[in-house]
Design brief:
- It is built from seven helices and 16 strands.
- The protein is of the alpha+beta class.
- The strands form five sheets. A five-stranded mixed β-sheet has the order 1-2-5-8-4, covered by helices on one side. Strands 3-14-13-12-11 form a five-stranded mixed β-sheet. A two-stranded antiparallel sheet has the order 6-7.
- It starts with 13 loop residues before the first strand and ends in a 6-residue tail after the last helix.
Length: 353
């Protein structure tokens, strides 16, 4: 079976991005990513950590509450303002008749769309340049139009458009794996953290350390990269003086599987996925991060005895890889909101995501 090493390797799950950059107007650098569940919805869980979460409908995912399945997940820039984008997603779902049926007419539905935001306000220079309902609709329409199993754009796309990690340009990353049983697990993440994805002593990506096969830059390359990163941070501080104190961020992710999970198991999986984030970004879950991971289970395959533990480990692993791919795919930005070089800008363009 051909795979894309992406969240969309989970059958029935689609991903769509929409973004605004300087090509759309001065000062724009933000976007929205929609993960669209199959038409019947998906069992979902969530685990939000850090001191500054910005979320919507996450309480509905508590296994004690009434919602059994959700219809899409929104990851978006714009901080709390970006939650406006969810209205566009809900409107589109309602038009398709996708949601919890609440009346005798099949059109009387309420879509359940959990969402989480990251902070990218002012990254492009325009404080009011943030996602709205129109951008959310654009992203969900892109997801719906995607062919099953389509590649997922990485780097400066969707919710990763204005993302920054430790002064470097962050972005969208995705990865997947197939368990021996045939169960698929995939992840998509928008990497935007106060902490760093790079070991300051060596330049090695933290997320590559855990598998024992990191790419190690030579000493002179690393020293020059650190010098340039310091200059970029200083210049960003100068350009944004008086507008952004302290640094505000948040890394977001969706991990999906075709396995059959209960709502409690989905919530447990979301929690375990933070282990994958912690391998790739350090420090994590700070007071100005609101790191949030969602889990989706399409429930197309039965779990074998003991396979849940294997799935928990795989979910964390694919999220680690997705973070690495996000950092490698990101492209540097130099604009009125600051200078955010990419990892490849500093350590060479020969590496691919």
């Amino acid at each position: 079976m051909t795979t894309q090493d992406a969240l969309t390797d989970v059958p029935g799950v689609r991903v769509g991005h929409a973004q605004r950059t300087t090509a759309d107007g001065p000062g724009w650098l933000t976007g929205t990513t929609v993960v669209l569940a199959p038409e019947g919805g998906a069992v979902a869980g969530v685990d939000s950590r850090g001191g500054a979460p910005g979320t919507r409908e996450t309480d509905a995912l508590d296994p004690r509450n009434v919602v059994e399945r959700i219809h899409a997940v929104v990851l978006t820039g714009g901080s709390a303002f970006g939650l406006d984008s969810v209205s566009g997603v809900m409107g589109w779902l309602e038009e398709q008749g996708r949601g919890v049926r609440v009346g005798p007419d099949p059109a009387q539905v309420v879509p359940v769309v959990p969402a989480a935001v990251l902070f990218d306000l002012g990254r492009g220079g325009n404080w009011r340049g943030r996602p709205d309902a129109a951008l959310g609709r654009e992203a969900v329409e892109a997801a719906a139009a995607a062919e099953p199993g389509s590649p997922v754009a990485q780097g400066n796309a969707g919710a990763g458009t204005g993302a920054v990690v430790g002064g470097l340009k962050g972005g969208i990353g995705t990865a997947s794996t197939v368990l021996p049983s045939g169960t698929t697990v995939g992840a998509v993440t928008a990497v935007n953290a106060v902490g760093s994805a790079v070991d300051p002593a060596t330049g090695v990506l933290y997320g590559e350390m855990w598998d024992g096969l990191p790419h190690v830059p030579d000493g002179s390359t690393h020293a020059e990269a650190q010098r340039r990163l310091t200059e970029a941070r200083d210049e960003t501080s100068r350009r944004s003086a008086g507008t952004l104190r302290p640094p505000l961020n948040t890394t977001l992710a969706v991990v999906a599987t075709d396995a059959t999970l209960t709502r409690a198991q989905a919530q447990k999986t979301a929690g375990n996925c933070h282990d994958g984030l912690a391998r790739a970004v350090r420090p994590l879950h700070l007071m100005h991060d609101g790191d949030t991971v969602f889990t989706l289970a399409t429930c197309e395959r039965s779990l074998a005895d003991g396979e849940l533990n294997e799935l928990l480990g795989a979910a964390a692993d694919v999220l680690t890889r997705a973070v690495v791919r996000a950092v490698l795919a990101a492209e540097g930005v130099d604009g009125p909101g600051g200078v955010f070089p990419s990892y490849r800008d500093l350590y060479g363009s020969g590496r691919q995501s």
